[in-house]
Q: What sequence folds into this?
C-alpha cells in the first residue's frame, strides 16, 4: 500500500502488462513501482514471444510471467488460442488495468470486450494520424513538423479508442526513422508512468463517459504533454 501526497493510503492499481519485445516500457513501470513512485502492483506479464527480453525483466523483478507463443506440438499459437489462454490468465491475476506495452498482435473485439479489466495501449504516433506500423517513416515521408506517442483506450478498431494522453516532439531536419524511434521511445518512458499515475489517482477515467467529458471545466482529452529532456 502506498501513501499519496495528502497522506491518504491508496490501494495500488493492479496492472497486467502484455509485451512482445524488449520491454523497456515495462522496465520503467517496474522501476517506478519498486521505488514507490507509482501506486501500482504489476501482477503479471504475458508475452506472445518466448524470446522477448521483457520476460527476463519481469522474472528478475519476481513478477509472474505467462509465455503464450507456441502450442504443445511446437506450432506458433493462433490468435484465438492465444486469447483463450490470455483471458484465463488475466482472470486469475485479477488486474484493475491491462497495459499493452509493445504488444504486437492484433486482438479481437470479443477478447477486448470480455477482458476482466479495461485495456490501454502505447502507440508511437500522435493518433489519430499514423495508426498501425512504420509510424516514424511515415512521419518523415509526410514532412510533418511534429511527432510523438499516444496512450489510448483499446477498442475493437485498431489504434482508434479514446486517446487519453500524448507526448509531442518537434521533428528535426536531421531526423531519420531510427532517431525518431529512439526519441519517441524516450517520450514513451515518461508518458506511460504519468498516464498510469493519473489513472491510479482517478484524474483520468476509462469509463465510457470520461472525467473530462463529464466536467465542462476540464479540457477535453487527449492531455498533451511537451516533455523536454
Ligand atoms: C514501443 O516503442 C512502442 O511504441 C511500440 O513498441 C515499442 C515497445 O518497446 N509499439 P519496449 O518493448 O517497451 O521496449
A:
Amino acid at each position: 500500500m502506498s501513501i499519496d501526497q495528502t497522506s491518504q493510503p491508496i490501494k495500488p492499481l493492479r496492472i497486467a502488462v502484455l509485451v512482445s519485445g524488449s520491454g523497456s516500457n515495462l522496465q520503467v513501470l517496474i522501476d517506478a513501482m519498486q521505488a514507490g513512485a507509482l501506486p501500482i502492483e504489476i501482477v503479471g506479464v504475458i508475452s506472445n514471444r518466448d524470446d522477448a527480453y521483457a520476460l527476463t525483466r519481469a522474472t528478475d523483478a519476481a513478477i509472474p510471467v505467462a509465455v503464450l507463443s507456441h502450442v504443445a506440438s511446437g506450432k506458433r499459437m493462433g490468435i484465438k488460442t492465444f486469447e483463450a489462454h490470455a483471458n484465463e490468465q488475466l482472470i486469475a491475476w485479477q488486474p484493475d488495468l491491462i497495459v499493452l506495452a509493445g504488444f504486437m498482435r492484433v486482438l479481437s473485439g470479443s477478447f477486448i470486450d470480455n477482458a476482466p479489466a479495461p485495456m490501454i495501449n502505447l502507440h508511437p504516433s500522435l493518433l489519430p494520424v499514423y495508426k498501425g506500423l512504420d509510424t516514424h517513416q511515415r512521419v518523415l515521408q509526410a514532412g510533418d513538423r511534429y511527432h510523438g506517442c499516444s496512450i489510448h483506450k483499446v477498442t475493437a478498431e485498431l489504434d482508434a479508442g479514446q486517446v487519453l494522453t500524448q507526448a509531442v516532439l518537434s521533428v528535426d531536419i536531421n531526423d531519420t526513422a531510427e532517431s525518431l524511434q529512439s526519441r519517441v521511445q524516450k517520450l514513451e518512458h515518461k508518458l506511460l508512468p504519468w498516464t498510469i499515475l493519473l489513472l491510479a489517482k482517478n484524474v483520468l477515467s476509462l469509463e465510457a463517459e470520461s472525467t473530462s467529458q463529464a466536467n465542462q471545466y476540464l479540457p477535453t482529452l487527449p492531455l498533451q504533454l511537451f516533455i523536454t529532456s
Notes: The beta strands are 2-3, 9-10, 13-19, 40-47, 65-67, 97-100, 119-123, 146-153, 163-170, 223-226. Helices lie at 24-34, 53-60, 79-93, 109-114, 135-142, 177-200, 211-214. The chain has a mean pLDDT of 92. The pocket of 5-O-phosphono-beta-D-ribofuranosylamine is lined by residues 19, 21-25, 54, 101-102, 122, 124, 185, 188 (CB under 6 Å).
